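Deliverable D4.2, example record:
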Amino acid sequence: MLKHFLFLLLFSCFTVQAKQTLKSSLPVEAHASLPNASQMNLSPDGNKIAFVQNAKGTLFLVVFDLKTGEKRYVTRTDNLNATLNWFDWVNNDLLVMGVSSTLVQKGVRYTSSALRRFDLTEKDAEIRNVLRMSRGVHNAQFQDNVISMLPDDPEHILLSIDLDIPNKPSVFKVNVRTGKRNRIERPKKNINSWIADQQGNVRIMRQIDDTTITYSLKDKKSGDWNKLFEYEVFSVDEVTILGFDNDPNILYFKANYQDTSALFKMDLSSEKRERELVYHDKDYDVDGSLVYSEKTQAVVGFSHSQFDDFISYWDEDLANLQKAIGKAIPDSTNIIMDTDKSGDKYILYTAADDHAGAYLYGDRANNTLDYIISRYPQIEGELYNGKNNVKYIARDKTEIEGYITYPADYEQGKSYPAIVLPHGGPMARDYAGFDYWSEFFAHHGYLVFQPNFRGSSGYGFSFENAAVGGWGQAMQDDLQDAANWLVEQGYTTKNKMCIAGGSYGGYAALMALVKHPDTFQCAASFAGVSDLDAIYSSARYFTNKDIVRKQIGTDRDKLEQVSPINFADKMTKPVLLIHGSEDSVVSVKHSRLMAEELEDAEKEVKYIELKDGSHHLKYQPYRVRTLQEMLAFFDKHLM
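Output generated by the structure prediction step:
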């Protein structure tokens, strides 16, 4: 158990509950609510914690003063019309944050963002815009792309933004208090983004020409730009730059090595610029990021989902701290999320088989570790099911990994109604940690299977590249094979399975009723793609149209053959469609038109449109309603 409790109960929403074993004992909101707390961020001096607190669906950005016990409410949102994307400390009294909203132009929905600040030294402080737009300046769509917090400069940040030429960002040094800015870099041809080193110098630019990605390095003496990496998107030559060490000549990046993405570093001062392998996992892509010391700005380790505590430290002091934490909180995943400038105070995230995750505050000087708050306080003990890692063999002998969440009161050898739950992306993956979808359905009596089908990220280049032009093909068959495997293993029976998912997962659910009509008794799609040819066509409105088209495929006849909207007449099982009206990722038209086609074909379909809803179910009432509707749908057709 976690000891030394530091109660920062900002709202009266914490209750102590006795363990329960009966399924359906929790209200829908226990799983469907947004996290109770998130985005913990420690001030540079370690005396304040800024974080997002959920109060019945209203999210408050709160600053808690650890010395005085004072709470300050910075801003609030419900995520319907505006979303707090991120925030960070410029200094001990100044917060900067990115806020996004959805706009419509010429019938096309898109997301825009703004950069705002909050000054704790002001008595009646308010959220204020950082940037002041003068006449003749382009009104940029994205205004919160900070590429350096300039840790040694307590007033300024480096901002990448297209104020000069639309869709071609420059770099400005911006005073967060006053909004004054100085241009550091002008836009270049095909410029997409910029990367700064730990000293705050702009060193690398990323350019996109159709489907060719080029990284160029700035010569520190001449100022000239020289090609560093170049590759075609979705090719084996892809490089992902992670960042610089505190030595500005050392660059870390990920690149393919023996078919999985590995961690490399390069000495940029060397004429040969040879790649030095730092870490390689032969079974999985290195999927994390660099970990920096707040004290020295040096790289002290890196994260990878396959590590027991997610981070591997090569800094001896932090490695010893991690070991000490493991002894204090055994049988848990313990992740140091943030530290102060001295490295003595830190925020710890911990999760285990009996709880969905909590935040703690550590003080090395006093040798204390105090509880702050839990993310899902009602889902603990026997009420937390957790995931189980499994593997099955697809029809072509490919091994597929996935996660099973057993239903409440699971008994080995007994079969249960099952839900196959493919993830979105599709070039993404499911992980072993808490998942409110799988936990919710398992709590209500369903066995949930989340296969990381072909096209998922994390399992190597060849595996993931099956998603390129592969919609409706092997990656779809993997879901059918997953269902067959569940039956073979005795987890469920042939007439007791449905399929559901969001985004690509919604597409896969609909396509399953087309390609494998006898396997699933129903399909539920949230924000799912139904028409790939429409994706191809609408890509012309966006700057990355060539990349989108390369990903889904360029043969439009083939796209029609793997688009569920063209096969409504072949769907013989009930369908549930849910979609947000302001979805800027997958247009609501995909579900509207799919519903119309099913209705015209006299099929059983229910369509729910969430007014002003987005793609990611960030608005809590819509998250609650979506899970309620899906549960009722599955209960009707499986229970």
